[in-house]
Design a protein that fits this description.
This protein is mainly α. It folds into two domains: 62 residues, Helicase, Ruva Protein, domain 3; 42 residues, Irregular (30s ribosomal protein s13, domain 2). The chain contains six helices and two strands; from the N terminus they run E-E-H-H-H-H-H-H. Strands 1-2 form a two-stranded antiparallel sheet. Helix 4 crosses helix 5. The chain is elongated.
Length: 118
């Protein structure tokens, strides 16, 4: 079992599919990493050596903001918007859509995505 950024990666899946389980790495980034390292698309995580896993871990730590760092930056941006009382921050606090969507007939989903300050 390989662990990267406190996430246990599944061993029985392909490398790029296993990397998707890390928050902040999607399909495109995972495939780009495996292609740049020269892994075949059918390469499984269980067949990796510790050296190859070390290369993947180095790439993730060096070039990508993932997991805790990504969450911290996301919430610090939200705190900044709400503290400065920017329009987007006010909409976030009230649980309304942030990016110009209408609320007359739709917009109930935004309240589920954000926290409401009551």
């Amino acid at each position: 079992m390989f662990t990267l950024k406190d996430v246990d990666l599944p061993v029985n899946k392909r490398v790029w599919v296993s990397l998707k389980s890390i928050s902040g790495l999607g399909v495109v980034r995972a495939k780009y990493m495996t292609d740049s390292l020269g892994f075949s698309s059918s390469y499984h995580m269980g067949s990796l050596s510790h050296f190859h896993f070390g290369l993947i871990a180095y790439l993730v730590k060096k070039f990508y903001a993932v997991e805790l760092l990504l969450r911290r930056s996301k919430f610090s941006n939200i705190r900044k918007f709400t503290a400065l009382r920017i329009y987007r921050g006010i909409r976030y606090l009230s649980g309304l859509p942030l990016r110009g969507q209408g609320t007359r007939s739709n917009g109930n989903t935004a309240g589920k995505l954000h926290f409401k300050k009551s």
